[in-house]
Recover the amino acids of this structure.
């Protein structure tokens, strides 16, 4: 990318707007960027989607992208802070999502969930407190 590219008119295809997980402020980034430093609060932000297909234990999972837990995925984390989430397997941890959370019919979530919207398939197991509708406050 040329150094002066910021002066060009960006085409809608190669820029996306990302809302910072930490300060909740939006900024435009290149679609293919995997990580950025927030220009407002200077924190490092991951942008990539993170899929889980197996057992995974993490302290925190943080990305502005989409976290997907497939049927064979079993994710244990203190906190999952993400731009959106799709759960088809098991998740144990506190979920803070800036975008919709989709829960498949065989999914199992143990932990508190905060998200603007949630869609739950019949049969999913949910244990925890759910705060749906209000966007999470930056923390
Ligand atoms: Zn920020």
């Amino acid at each position: 990318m040329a150094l002066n590219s910021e002066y060009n008119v960006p085409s809608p295809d190669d820029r996306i707007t990302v809302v910072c997980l930490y300060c909740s402020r939006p900024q435009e980034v290149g679609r293919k960027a995997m990580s950025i430093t927030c220009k407002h609060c200077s924190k490092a932000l991951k942008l990539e989607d993170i899929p889980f297909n197996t057992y995974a234990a993490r302290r925190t999972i943080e990305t502005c992208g989409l976290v997907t837990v497939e049927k064979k995925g079993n994710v244990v984390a203190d906190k999952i802070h993400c731009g959106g989430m799709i759960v088809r397997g098991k998740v144990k941890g506190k979920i803070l999502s800036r975008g919709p959370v989709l829960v498949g019919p065989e999914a199992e979530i143990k932990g508190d969930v905060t998200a603007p919207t949630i869609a739950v398939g019949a049969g999913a197991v949910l244990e925890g407190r759910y705060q749906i509708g209000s966007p999470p406050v930056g923390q």
Observations:
- The chain has two domains: 11-46, 50-127.
- The first strand starts at residue 15 and ends at 19.
- The mean pLDDT is 90.
